[in-house]
Structures are given as structure tokens and as C-alpha cells.
Amino acid sequence: MRKYLEVFRWSFKMQIVWRFDVAMTMVATIGRIVAAWILWSAAFSGKELVGGFTFEAMLSYYIIGSFLASLDMSNQISSEVSYLIKDGGFSKHMVTPMNPFGFFGYMIAGESAFHFAFSLIAAAVCAVLFRIKIVITPDITGLLLGGGMAFLGLLFMVGYHYLIGILAFKFLDIGFFLHVQGSIISFATGALVPLSLLSGTVVGVLRFLPFTHVVFTPAMLLTGQISVDEGLFGAGVLLVWVAVIVFMGQTTYRRLRVRYEGVGI
Fold first, then answer.
1. Whole-angstrom distance, CA of residue 254 vs CA of residue 243
2. 29-38 burial string, b = 16+ CB within 10 Å, else e?
3. How far apart are CA 212 and CA 234, in angstroms?
4. What count of other Cβ atoms lies within 10 Å of the Cβ of residue 137?
5. Which of helix, strand or coil describes residue 50?
6. How high is the pLDDT of residue 265?
7. Cys-Cys with 7: which of 17, 43, 106, 234 at CB 3.0–4.6 Å?
């Protein structure tokens, strides 16, 4: 366990060196919220409710959702793992006494932990800038459940991107997977628009998929837009998918690693 904590500490400290990247993450978070403010200001013109949201509740959702989305650094795993496999550098992860999934998971955890405070500052700046009274549920159970689901969501995304990355053992170029899945995931997580605005059939299908519960469900819980019972259902779905994606990643790695002839330890 200590070796993984050392990876976490190393990754956390590395963020201090790459301060410009952290600043850009804050700018991206603020930009996403500003775009939402402009869009929904026009949509709410002369209206009190849109899709069951008040203007204040909608912007609260976007602030919290953007904060949760900005903590997810896991997309780096798929590109880095695929690059290391093709370059030969992944060999070192096959001989060190650490599971590659654990290594990359704790590496991303260190980055996300460092970004936590700055993303929170970015969200707070937007709330003050647009004079938004952020709607937060007073239900302690909802707050704890939303926070727990946010953590599970990050864990799932780490497992998902790790699985995409190790497909480079089998495929020469996984660029198709990297480019196509990005936009789809942004939509499916609810980072672009609240999924409750979609038709009932679409929402009924998406609620059984994990991506919905990475941003949308935690943000809706934290803003008090859905019940704890609905949150518990989402947490159950997410737990199952976390187990599935970790199992798939570990199994795929064990099966494909024997074909690897990379060099460069």
C-alpha cells in the first residue's frame, strides 16, 4: 500500500511544477459555466421553469457538475498507456512490483486531489461573479451519497480509460476509441446538458449505464433535484459497473500482456 501512496504523493507534487496546466483547468471550468450562463439566460428569458429547473437551480447544477467534471483527469490514462505500449516504455510497468491499474489509478488520484481546491475556487468565483445562490440539498444523507457517488464515478472512469489504453496491446492505433468516446461521454455523463431534459425513454436507458451516474446523478443529488432513493439506485448501478470495468481491465491485461514484445525498461 505504501508504494501506491508514494505514487499519489509524487503525482500530487508534480502538479506544483505544472502550474500552468492547473490554471488552464480553472479557466476551462469557468468557461464551461460562463457558456451555460449565456445559453440558459436566453432559454429562461420570460420563463420561470425549463424542464422542471428554475434558473438558479440550473446554474447550480452546472457549477457543481462542472466542478465534478474538472476533477476527472482519467482521460490521460488511455493516451499515456497506449503511447507507452507502442513506444516500449510500458515494459517497466510489467516488471515493477505494482499493478499497472493501481499505479495509474493513484497517479490520477494525486492529480485530482491537487485540482480539487482550484476547481472549487473556480466554481466559487463563478457563483460570486454571477451572483448565484447555489442550491444545495439540506439532506445530510443526500450530501454524503452524492459525494460517495462522485468518488465511485472517478474510479469507474479510471478503470474505463485504463481498459481503452491497454487495447493498444492488440490494436495498432486506438485513436478512433480516444476521439469518438470523448464527446459521447461528455454527453452521457450530463456534463453538457442535464439528462432530465431528454425524453423519458432515453433517460430510462441511460440510468442503467454508468456514465449517467458520474456527473448527472451526484450533481442532482447535491442540488436536491432527485430523491435519495433515486440516488441509491444510481449508486447500485455504478457499483456494479465499477466491478465490471475493473474485472475487464485486469482480465484483458493478463490475456494481452503475453503477446507484448515491447522494449525499453
1. 17
2. bbebbeebbe
3. 8
4. 18
5. strand
6. 40
7. 106
Question: Cα 23 to chain center, whole Å?
Answer: 18
106 within 8 A of 14, measured Cβ to Cβ: no
Nearest by Cα to 212 from 198, 229, 224: 198
Neighbours of 145 (CB within 10 A): 21
Q: Dmax of the chain from CA atoms?
A: 64
Q: Which three cell numbers stand for residue 212?
A: 449517467
Per-residue cell: 59: 446554474
Q: What is the pTM of this model?
A: 0.85
Asked whether 7 and 106 are in contact (CB, 8 A), the reply is yes
> What would the grid cell of residue 245 be?
470495468
Give 71's contacts (C-beta < 8 A, 6+ positions apart): 112, 115, 116, 119, 150, 154
The winner for highest mean pLDDT among 138-142, 172-176, 243-247 is 243-247
**Higher-scoring residue by pLDDT: 80, 25:** 80
CA distance 218 to 228: 10
Torsion of CA 50, 56, 62, 65, to 10 degrees: -110
Backbone φ and ψ of 227, nearest 5°: -80, 165
Confidence check: pLDDT of 49 > 90: no
Task: Compute the distance between CA of residue 45 and CA of residue 105 in angstroms, rounded to an integer.
Answer: 44
Which range of 7-16, 63-72, 118-127, 137-146 scores highest in mean pLDDT? It is: 137-146
Q: Encode pLDDT of 144-178 as tens digits.
A: 999 999 999 999 999 999 998 888 888 766 766 66
Strand partners, 53: 50
